[in-house]
Write a structure and sequence with these properties.
This protein is of the alpha/beta class. The chain has 14 helices and 20 strands. The protein has 3 domains: 185 residues, Class I glutamine amidotransferase (GATase) domain (Rossmann fold, 3-Layer(aba) Sandwich); 189 residues, Rossmann fold; 97 residues, 2-Layer Sandwich (GMP Synthetase, Chain A, domain 3). The strands form 4 sheets. Strands 2-1-3-4-11-10-9-6-7 form a 9-stranded mixed β-sheet, with helices on both faces. The longest helix is centred in the middle third of the chain and has 23 residues. The protein is globular. The structure holds xanthosine-5'-monophosphate. The site of xanthosine-5'-monophosphate has 11 residues, from loops.
Length: 513
Amino acid sequence: MSEELIAILDFGSQYNQLIARRVRECNVYSVLVNHSTSPAELKGMNPKGIILSGGPASVFAKDSPRCQAEILDLGVPVLGICYGMQLMAQILGGEVEKGRSGEYGFAELHTSQDSSLFAGVPPYSQVWMSHADKVIELPPGFQTIARTDDCDIAAMWSPARRLYGVQFHPEVVHSIHGAQILDNFVAKICGCSRSWTITSFIEHTAKQIAETVGDDRVICALSGGVDSAVTAAIIDKAIGPQLDCVFVNNGVVRAGEPEEIQKIFGNDFSFKFHGIDAEDRFLRRLKGVTDPEEKRKAIGDEFIKVFVDKARELGNIRFLAQGTLYPDVIESHSPTGAPSATIKSHHNVGGLPEDLDFELIEPLRELFKDEVRELGRELGLPLSIVKRQPFPGPGLAVRVLGEVTKERLDILREADLRVQQEMEKYEHYDEIWQSFAILLPIRSVGVMGDERTYEHTVVLRAVTSQDGMTADWARLPYDLLDRISRRVINEVRGVNRVVYDIGSKPPSTIEWE
Ligand code: XMP
């Protein structure tokens, strides 16, 4: 790629992807590479600068991850962050002290000397520290450019070699001027022109996909959500006719969803779209099931069967594309094979049989949700997809409490449709993480006209959230609640009561099952 590049050597810090993201926010492309990448390989990538990431290890540990010393001699600026700074100091003959108490959390950084790294940063500013070891003696040719109360050498600089080290984490938001510092590094120090955009990400990724896939074929399960849609759209750009996308209507989707997916993906792309109506099959499988976990398992198992049947029918497919995002891989096996990263592998399509041993393609695994939405917009996906709220894999089955029948699903779908229609008109809709209806397994007494009714209760749930891990119930205006309630009760047969869920997570969850 001709694009200017910052290479980030991955020493296993939990913040590594954030560094990559912050650099990209400066409109400079960045990639994480394994810490053991050779100087020759790095040189071949032609980076404008190199960042040595932080990491949980100590430079004193026997098998701590290291890089070759020549990486500091490639003639491009290098910024060591936390562990990366300690490693740089140790390699170049400075002294690192083994951690005693360490320094964690906020600290006040005092920049003691003008350096282009701190251009625009006030003399005193808040930074985020997370370290045990620290540099106590500079390597030859280095100067101290910042300190904190607990750390005399909080930042160092070798003017001749253009090597920099910071003990704090500029990539986290708690370092108030961290973004400025990284921007100074990539623009002022490395001389990047900041020409990278999401469009160049698309081109770069599409080119990579085309190289990886060659003449082979790719299969992708479309769920209707933004992640799988963007995955399909970007692969389509790379190798369209070699891609097969499968959308399974499992009968627990929202009103109009299969038709909308068919309309969007059936025509405007060059991949082959396979819409499978498996509603009856799923509903048979869900008959009599009331336990939430059993519902999840039933739907997951059935999905695999349908997907596997289709994959076998299509035959001869080498790759499976998945819309895995960065938050899905945070705790998982690192893309760069970093030493500290382990655990949890994320498979949206898990449990595939051995003869369908696909190789994975995950073009979004370095991105956060908001970047994926931006990508989706850029790829021309409709806003109805790009702005879509999260929707659980087991769909409406976990929103029909108790047994899932076609009749009860239809009542929920009709209620949910009205909730969506009214919510989409709400001026602060973009601030809502999820808004939906739930059907309770109880009836209550009401009156309609002169008639006494004994009908279903629908719960309205609307929450705000950053990432779904915690959530607060949305303070919707009374008028909006009133409109939703009136429409649901008046227009949906079988419902005579709407209640609003004011539980926050924790201790409640967003979904009810
Ligand atoms: P909870 O209910 O745990 O939900 O607060 C957090 C977020 O996860 C979604 N969710 C699921 N997504 N399969 C999924 O793909 C599931 O089984 C599932 N359960 C919950 C939920 O919609 C919310 O965004």
